[in-house]
Amino acid sequence: MSQPVALEKLPVPPGKSGCPINLTVELLGDRWSLIILRDIMFGGHTHFRELLTGSIEGIASNILAARLTKLVAAGLLTRDDDPSHRQKVEYHLTEAAIQLVPVLAALGAWGARWLHTSPELTVRAELLAAGGPPMWDRFMDELRATHLRGAPLPADGVLAELTAAYLEAVGE
What we know:
Layout: H1 20-28, H2 33-43, H3 48-54, H4 61-73, E1 77-81, E2 89-93, H5 95-98, H6 101-114, H7 119-148, H8 158-170
Antiparallel strand pairs: 1-2
């Protein structure tokens, strides 16, 4: 899996200001970028079709294609040939995207606390919040192994725990 050349910063154009919050919102603040990263991180979706059909929010194919291109260009995803099929590609998280786990955990915890959410979709956010930085670090290590080194997902890892809690919440 190819990763961008070791850079200190992501290859994104300068923003309206040098404010790190503004620059982050300019990069990730559209309607779909964080949802795509979420579906790759927490859903294990790495192919276009999986991302298109696996997202409960129902992203349009042209929007998905544009966001994937943007996230690859920004250095948050890599686009790699799928070894199992000549005409397929896989999208993998880069280290910069993996380090968004605490941000997504904080967003999920905030949303669970302040917004009307569904219990089955909130359970993973609550587990991540309760697990705190030790769980986030374990999850980031799993993602590194899977996305950066090509290892299979562990059957007893953080993602397996989050998925089991979700399946229990939906009654599967």
